[in-house]
Design a protein that fits this description.
By secondary structure, the chain is of the alpha/beta class. The protein starts with 5 loop residues before the first helix and ends in a 13-residue tail after the last strand.
Amino acid sequence: MESDTFPKLLLRHVKDRAEHPAIREKTRGIWHTLSWRALGDEVMALAAALSARGLQRGAHVALVGDNRPRLYAAMCAVQWLGAVAVPLYQDAAADEMLLPMRSADVTHFFAENQEQVDKLLEILPGCPSVRCIVYDEDRGMRHYRQPELVSYAALLEQGHDALKSQRETLLAEAARGNGSDPAFVFFTSGTTGPSKGVVLTHASLIDRAQAAAAMEGLKDSDVAMAYLPLGWIGQNLFSYAQPMVVGYCVCCPESSETMLADMREIGPTYLLTPPRVLETLLTQVQLRIADSGRIERALYERCIALAQRVGARILAGEAVALGDRLAYAVADLVIYGPLRDVLGMSKVRVAFTAGDAIAPELLLFFRAIGVNLKQLYGSTETGLFVAAQRDGEVRPDTVGPPAQGVEVRITPEREILVRSPGLFREYHRDPETTARAKRADGWYHTGDAGWLGDDGHLRVIDRLKNMGALNDGTVYAPKLLENKLKFLGSVKEAVVIGDGRDKVCALIDIDIAVVGNWANKRSLSYTGHADLASLAEVYELIADGIAQVNAGLARDALLAKSQIHRFAILPKELDADDGVLTRTGKLKRGVIAERYRVVMDGLYEGRGVVRLDDGIELKIRDARTVDGTPRAKAA
């Protein structure tokens, strides 16, 4: 039987590596392991029970919750019957779940716990197609009496009973599957407009998983962590598609709070991490160093300076002076190695960062301390793997050459076009948008701006929609500037403005943990986020950081005129629950522009204070810029 669907791949692993670990989960402090044989048995039983409960080929099944083995088993059981899995974001509000549920006419629903069940029950009147709701954790569910509800345990027991007479029928059903069948519908994060359902086939995802496995030499002995949202294609590719292709083990942490400790215990060798997670990890490191003694801080700073000078070159296998190499080896014993261990990265062989652009300084920091972190470029529509950095060719200004099987073309407007076996089939029930994005000749219009260098590496600038120019014609790319600001430990998020303006200004979202710790050490009193953000001392802290960024921009002929001239510190954190970020942490620029229009107007009108709708007075300050235009870099 050809292994062209995920259930067929599962059956192959059951045959070839039956007792090898397939997936692990930590519960109540103990790791529990499910072998490939046990996973296969559970998936087949679930498929039998779902069939008895009316799941039809081509139907859609939603799944929501944290990463749990039972949700991954449910995905495969759904696909076993020829149905389509629709993973949703576990932190989405009930009304955010309504659009994908109705758009896909979801008939069956898998929920991790009472919280997720409650959200579905809230919108259930608007989802008339739902006929079965399966919940895993039964805490708080005792008094629920809705007829659609069934526990995972009861469903599994029903399936095991049905298997006694239906095993051959179910095997035949799995054999009916074809690589061209839809496997998933992923709903986009809605960065640039309404969320769209992206239909991906088994073949498209298996192709991208195979390309990644060949590129990185993945083996069934590798270990990956499943800790990111199920609704993001990146997590699904690393914790579902690639394990199904390669046979490696996936580990689910007990909770987000224990994730780092669980990573240290399990020692992943293969890791996917968005820039926001790396920024959080670096912030934690900076806080610990700030709380350490003077000697420890001096040692850390000296070792990090050495790492930033030679660490990335050593990791890339380049020639480094013997003295530097020996010094790095000593520093690795006392600083870098323990630091990697604290971050849960002591055994990481390769790590990819994806989902958003990463600040070059952040990438280089992790590479400097010996983490083989590389950039990966792609999107939901492209099956994620479009371009990726290769060992020995990691450059902070590129995302690497196109991945195996991928063609890239750049339009005169600098839009990146992609043609690949991993492309999506269509936008769910939206032929017009599909036709605009994916042309008849197979080229997908990504909406990203960039270019291919003579070295064959792809450079990605920003979303075309975000690109613009200052009034003097200077090219304006906000993401690049925001990443430089976010590398400052005190800045959690930044929003820069400049398109069609005379100069660049910024809204700053401070990191409350870092800035709060800084304020406490200086005996500054404050009552909350808004009060802290309004302190004159905090404004001076941010002004110093922006001055550093401006000094760096001034040294680059292409960016010198993009220095930040004025800024304001927001009184509250930018949060997805407020609608200003997507569930993957990307800025919703249109929403932010509307929400903080009075602040943006004040930045350009020269005002020192503006009043928000809730009555809060927000200060605006000038930033320190660097005069003079640098000479252009030599070609």
